[in-house]
Design brief:
There is one protein chain. This protein has one domain. It contains five helices and seven strands. The chain has helices spanning 2-26, 39-42, 62-69, 119-125, 133-139; strands at residues 45-46, 52-54, 73-78, 84-93, 96-103, 106-113, 140-142.
């Protein structure tokens, strides 16, 4: 029963995370399509280790653009209850895109085929049925 509760909490927090990202994205009507990112769209603050530090309020699509391109990026959010959510794209590793989402020490660690990266996959990661469950199940490990 305790494991089911943890999974439910993770799903609820993930759903809150996607809501925060997409809520910010919906305010950007007229933005360039994410299929053609440019340096100006993806760059905020780059850390010493080469990760773009995305900020949800200043550039809501920053993380999505970097996820789709599989370029190093981090996005840290705080839920209404103070729960910290850290999403990281580590870039390409052995021809796979390494993505990780951590919520209070638990989360998913994924290795996706680059060809599978799209907005539907992002929605599926957050628990919305987009027909990509098999891809997520195969690519991701919960911890």
């Amino acid at each position: 029963m305790q494991k089911s509760l943890k999974i439910l909490v993770i799903i609820l927090v993930l759903a809150g995370g996607i809501y925060m990202i997409w809520n910010g994205v919906s305010k950007m009507k007229g933005a360039k399509p994410i299929t053609t990112p440019t340096t100006n769209e993806t760059t905020t603050i780059t850390s010493e280790d080469g990760f773009v530090q995305c900020e949800t309020e200043k550039q809501p699509r920053c993380f999505i653009i970097n996820f789709l391109a599989c370029t190093k990026a981090k996005l840290e959010m705080v839920g209404d209850d103070g729960t910290k959510i850290l999403m990281t794209v580590f870039g390409m590793e052995n021809d796979k895109c390494h993505y990780k989402m951590e919520i209070s020490g638990h989360g998913v660690d994924c290795l996706f085929n680059k060809a599978d990266l799209d907005e539907k996959l992002i929605n599926q990661i957050f628990g919305n049925d987009e027909g990509k469950k098999a891809i997520v199940d195969e690519a991701c490990q919960m911890y």
